[in-house]
């Protein structure tokens, strides 16, 4: 186990990274060194050691840490830039900064699939989209409970939805924000991005009419149960409410006057769990790396 420098504005702190050494691989191949450095930095970003907006250590610090020259390091950083993980900023206070993940790409891809299904009158895809969102929200709720997340944003939307004087469009917008707040409460950027993409695509084709007071009250009751379940750390209550909400959303158009719960509950997918962080492969010293470029300066 060794320390790696973590840049944060003008301050420098250290972070323990299990199984990682600061030296480069021993096979002498520049491509392997580049891959190893990019992998180490990527793992540090994806596991949260570098948060969105954080500045990476300077090139000089990273070159000294990995014992490589500047061209090798820049090629590794270029790979991270190509993957959208970092962004270079020039000028005073510049450097390599961890990017804020975006749900745009996820949303665009899902929206394209839904739009195609709609054009083909294949409405079976809509329930699948909602089911995916519900199952992902179960994982988000579990993490919100685990992290004892603040759910004040969810409570605010529940308060708004309880005002039946608001328009149907305002109610639908509040439901969308409620789902986004639940995703954010997970505290997991990856799951939040996936949920944002699903929600954006789903609500892009969600009608903003057909929500009388009785229907709103049913939605509200599920939302209250979800929020109360998270606040009370009752995972099964939350999962039960989300499962019933899924059935209600799929079946309410068949007979709006039927207040009976759906006869058949959707199949439960395996519980979503955070993948374990893989142990980083130790890097071995390289004796010939200094030949691929000038030694780093003190910048």
TrEMBL record:
PROSITE patterns for this protein: HTH_GNTR
Keyword Secreted applies: no
Alphabetical list of InterPro entries matching this protein: GntR_C, TF_FadR/GntR_C, Tscrpt_reg_HTH_GntR, WH-like_DNA-bd_sf, WH_DNA-bd_sf
A GO MF term: DNA binding
Region (Disordered): 1-29, 251-299
Record's compositionally biased regions (Polar residues): 7-25
Domain HTH gntR-type, first and last residues per copy: 31-101
Superkingdom to which the source organism belongs: Bacteria
Swiss-Prot/TrEMBL keywords: DNA-binding, Transcription, Transcription regulation
Pfam families: FCD (PF07729), GntR (PF00392)
Stored PANTHER family: GNTR FAMILY REGULATORY PROTEIN (PTHR43537:SF44), TRANSCRIPTIONAL REGULATOR, GNTR FAMILY (PTHR43537)
Protein name: HTH gntR-type domain-containing protein
Protein's organism: Pararhodobacter oceanensis
């Amino acid at each position: 186990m060794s320390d790696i420098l973590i840049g944060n504005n003008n301050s420098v702190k250290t972070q323990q990274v299990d199984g990682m050494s600061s030296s480069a691989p021993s096979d002498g191949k520049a491509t392997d060194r580049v891959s190893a450095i990019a992998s180490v930095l990527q793992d540090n970003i994806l596991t949260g050691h570098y948060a969105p907006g954080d500045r990476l250590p300077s090139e000089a610090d990273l070159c000294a840490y990995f014992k490589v020259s500047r061209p090798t390091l820049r090629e590794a950083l270029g790979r991270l830039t190509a993957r959208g993980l970092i962004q270079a900023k020039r000028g005073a206070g510049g450097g390599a900064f961890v990017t804020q993940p975006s749900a745009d790409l996820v949303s665009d891809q899902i929206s394209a699939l839904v739009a195609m299904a709609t054009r083909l009158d294949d409405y079976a895809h809509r329930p699948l989209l909602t089911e995916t969102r519900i199952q992902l929200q179960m994982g988000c709720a579990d993490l919100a409970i685990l992290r004892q997340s603040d759910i004040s944003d969810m409570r605010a939307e529940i308060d708004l939805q309880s005002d039946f004087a608001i328009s149907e469009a305002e109610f639908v917008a509040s439901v969308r924000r409620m789902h986004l707040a639940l995703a954010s409460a997970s505290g997991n950027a990856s799951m939040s991005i996936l949920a944002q993409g699903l929600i954006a695509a789903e609500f892009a084709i969600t009608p903003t009419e057909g929500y009388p007071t009785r229907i709103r009250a049913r939605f509200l009751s599920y939302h209250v149960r979800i929020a109360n379940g998270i606040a009370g750390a009752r995972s099964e209550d939350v999962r039960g409410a989300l499962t019933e909400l899924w059935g209600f959303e799929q079946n309410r158009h068949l007979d709006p006057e039927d207040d009976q719960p759906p006869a058949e509950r959707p199949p439960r997918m395996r519980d979503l769990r955070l993948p374990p962080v893989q142990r980083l492969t130790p890097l071995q010293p390289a004796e010939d790396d200094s030949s691929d470029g000038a030694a780093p300066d003190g910048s």
